[in-house]
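Workshop exercise sheet. Pairs work together: one partner reads the sequence aloud, the other fills in the structure field after running the prediction. Swap roles for the next sheet.
Pair: D.N. / O.F.
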Amino acid sequence: MTEHLDERYIERNIDDSFMKDLPENVDICGENGEHHTFCHDGPIFSSPVTYTLEEPVKRTYTFKFKDGRIREFSKLFANISGQMPQG
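Structure field:
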């Protein structure tokens, strides 16, 4: 998650509703790093991946550019722990 998306987007399925709710400046595919995905079920899986999503944590990073500008970027992280299906 980035400054474009907040906690409400964490753990949502990517469906028509998700895409309609995205702000206009966010790439639907997350190509600019707006969001990351985790595939936990589907036809290629013998069974769904059981997982637990940890509490989101906001981290802020400060970057200093060559021209002297300083900019802070905040990102939301939510760790995933789980077990891959066997077989």
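Discussion prompt: The beta strands are 50-53, 57-64, 70-77, 80-83. What would you look at next?
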